[in-house]
């Protein structure tokens, strides 16, 4: 079984109430990788028998550290309309809430479509970019094939500040796995903290909240399959102990699959 599918396994206690667990393959420096927590929360709603349509957005609040072991997820639809469904998803461990999410699911329909965002040009082929080889990398990064061609964390951090914290990379699950909504939710958080790219040094950080917007439907994700997707990440402002970073996730053919934005705490 793929490591992501192992992490997404959960036992149903009641409709929407599941027992899940952390996975050692997705460990971060402290606790689990936030992207895998986001994927587990979304998966609980995806499994619910009353689910309507497919996810179009998810906002995760990381309220407290998740300790190694089991935790409980309660995913319930709080309002269902004809074409949209609003969700409250909560994760608790030892009687305390550790993460919560709101999500919106919807029935998509055929309409006029257009894209204002610009797909980058003159991109290197994924096979021409060396995968990240970095001994100090957190364990969860070994679950992804990360091929940075701009804004990578170097082997030796120089401390010489860059003019910006933007990065571009090709990425897919490792080993390769067909893309679905849970995998896309985790990839939305796969980008290194922008402050480390900008300042070229280690900084203590913690994501406070992460919002992802899913622009693809399941048919488009099926077309992507296990191919690489393009990630472009940047920050806007670093100030008073917090910074935000945003990212776009594109298919190799130029379809915008997701956009994401998060607020991050840092201690300098």
From TrEMBL:
Residue ranges that the Swiss-Prot or TrEMBL entry lists as coiled coil: none
Residue span, Acyl-CoA thioesterase-like N-terminal HotDog domain: 25-106
Q: Name one Pfam family in it.
A: 4HBT_3
Tell me the leader sequence span.
none
Q: Which residues form the Acyl-CoA thioesterase-like C-terminal domain?
A: 128-265
Give the superkingdom in one word: Bacteria
PANTHER family for this protein: CHROMOSOME 23, WHOLE GENOME SHOTGUN SEQUENCE (PTHR38110), THIOESTERASE DOMAIN-CONTAINING PROTEIN (PTHR38110:SF1)
Protein known as: Acyl-CoA thioesterase
* Organism listed in the record: Pseudohongiella spirulinae
């Amino acid at each position: 079984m793929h490591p992501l599918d192992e992490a997404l396994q959960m036992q149903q206690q009641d409709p929407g109430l599941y027992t899940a667990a952390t996975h050692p393959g997705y460990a971060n420096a402290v606790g689990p990788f936030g992207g895998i927590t986001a994927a587990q929360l979304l998966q609980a709603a995806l499994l619910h028998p009353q689910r309507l349509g497919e996810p179009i957005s998810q906002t995760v609040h990381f309220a407290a550290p998740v300790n190694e072991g089991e935790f409980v997820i309660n995913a319930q639809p709080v309002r269902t309309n004809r074409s949209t469904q609003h969700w409250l998803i909560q994760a608790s461990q030892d009687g305390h809430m550790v993460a919560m999410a709101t999500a919106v699911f919807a029935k998509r329909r055929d309409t006029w479509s257009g894209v204002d965002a610009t797909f980058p040009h003159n991109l290197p082929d994924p096979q021409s970019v060396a995968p990240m080889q970095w001994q100090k990398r957190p364990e969860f990064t070994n679950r992804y094939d990360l091929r940075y061609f701009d804004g990578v964390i170097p082997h030796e951090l120089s401390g010489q500040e860059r003019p910006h914290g933007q990065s571009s990379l090709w990425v897919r699950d490792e080993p390769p796995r067909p893309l679905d909504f849970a995998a896309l939710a985790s990839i939305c958080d796969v980008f290194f903290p922008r402050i480390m790219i900008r300042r070229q040094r280690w900084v203590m950080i913690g994501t406070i909240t992460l919002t992802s917007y899913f622009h693809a439907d399941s048919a488009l994700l099926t077309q992507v399959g296990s191919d690489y997707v393009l990630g472009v990440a940047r920050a806007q402002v670093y100030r008073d102990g917090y910074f935000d970073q945003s990212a776009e996730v594109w298919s190799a053919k130029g379809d915008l699959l997701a956009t994401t934005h998060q607020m991050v705490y840092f201690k300098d």
